[in-house]
Design goal:
Elements lengths: L1 H13 L10 H7 L3 H4 L1 E6 L5 E7 L4 E21 L3 E18 L2 E8 L10 H6 L1 E7 L8 E9 L6 E9 L4 E6 L1 H4 L2
Parallel strand pairs: 1-4
Antiparallel strand pairs: 2-3, 3-4, 4-5, 6-7, 7-8, 8-9
Amino acid sequence: MLFLILIVAAVTTCCDGRDRVYQTNTEILKDNNLYESFSHKIAYIPQSYTEINTDTVLNNNFRIKIKYYTLPQDSVLIKKTIPPKTNMWYYYHNFEARLVISKQGTPILDVFINKALFKNFETDWFWKEAIMQFLWIDYESITKHSVNINVSFCIPESTRCKDYVLTVDDLGALKINEINLSLLNI
């Protein structure tokens, strides 16, 4: 019995953590396979679900309803390292919009505006990295028989963007053209 007590005493005194007293926190975390979970931070942009609804009646008898919202399951990941050795993971949520247009009270167009609608205008690589940044009615280009909706897709934290104009006539025909908004502002 005395022998068993001596063994238990020896084991407990050897496991008191004295071997860790000269280790850094980083070394202790690495020894316990916890370093990765403490060395990176995650941020979501926007932080929560976002939805913007607009309902616009124009003087040419067009009514435009836009529901612009985030797609939490569709994000673009940007990784950065911030000193001292902290990895930041930014998840930029993509957006989608439902566009409903009517003329004189008669519905003429109901379409979802997302990356799939524009897939023929750019490479697959661009669409994997880009998010819908902006969507707005171009009030200056409204005519008696058509309206224009501008859409911009950008790769987060870069200057690479693609801009498009959606032209909808009074019969509901949708035409998409790529434009360069930076040249229009000169």
